[in-house]
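During the no-cost extension, the postdoctoral fellow (Dr. R.K.) reprocessed legacy sequence entries with the updated structure-token encoder. One reprocessed record is reproduced below for audit purposes.
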Amino acid sequence: MKIGFDAKRALNNSTGLGNHARILINALAQKFPEHEYLLFSPRSREEEFYKLYDKLQIIAPKTKFDKAFSPFWRSFSMIEQLKGRGVNIYHGLSNELPFNIHQSGIPSVVTIHDLIFLKHTQQYFFLDRKIYEIKTRYAAKHANRIIAVSEETKNDLVHFYKTPKEKITVIHPAVEPVFYKIATVEAKSELKRKYALPEKFMLNVSSFFPRKNQKTLIRAFDLIKDKVDENLILVGSGGSERKSILHLIAQMKLERRIKIISGISNEELPTLYQLAAVFVYPSIYEGFGAPVLEALCSRTPVITTSGGCMQEAGGEHSIYIDPHQPEEIADALIRVLRNESLRKEMIDKGYAHALSLTPETFAEKTMRAYLDVT
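Re-encoded structure tokens follow.
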């Protein structure tokens, strides 16, 4: 079977949707080597290309027009190359498909990560929001199978687009295999030195948007700052809230206790998680919540938002809080930091949950979805 992928993000994005695409493609290629995997992308960055399994084919636009107008190629012209290459199934990895896929005779699968642009409209420019909505609505309507990354995303598809439930398969994403590996003492020491990390700290990894809710976390930390030795590390880059978060930290005179770090690589992140006493993630809305799973794989206890997809990512033994209540977050932090037997149970049982969401499982479930529509 020849499987085609929308590989724009796999070959160009170093985090987020790029990671998701690479993890899946690599896991499929290694678990099911009997199939051919064709990556369709108008361009590729060398550093992302070398993260992919070496037995893959990259297909780029052919004509000068398609090279010059790559969005048009991805949305329309690419179909001819899919046909010419004899692709048996096409997988749009991030909420979209070519607009003429339903007329091509090629079965299609689309992964829909979230409908944040409909639920948190203030985070998007009007034109961007409309483009996302048009692409996602088309993909949801015309794909032979939708893969939703969580039950919450499935429910949103049913609510906003009236998508039939039987058309949607929920497949939880995996994280990179490196998160399952225990960091060496030397790696931990080097990371502490490189980023001037405190000896003890709580960790949050996220971009800086309102729905990520770091300001409530900062207020929760302020409530317990005199009761704990741990500092708070916020890791992330990008987002509209970064400046206002820095202002809040200064306003509350917490500059010596809260540190923002940017530029952490995917290779360094597992070590950072393993150094943390607890990972706290009070996000208001996610499609899945990959950082929660990354923390569990890294054997770090997790405090995160109750309800929705976070409990799918976090399993039964994480602690769940109301993200709007700093007092509740503060109480949960005190519980975890002061109770070593609780921490150990959360670590052990959280890691056991993480083992049910490996890249191999991710690939197996996705391949079953392909076989259902071919």
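The mean pLDDT is 95. The radius of gyration is 21 Å. The remaining legacy entries will be reprocessed before the final report is submitted.
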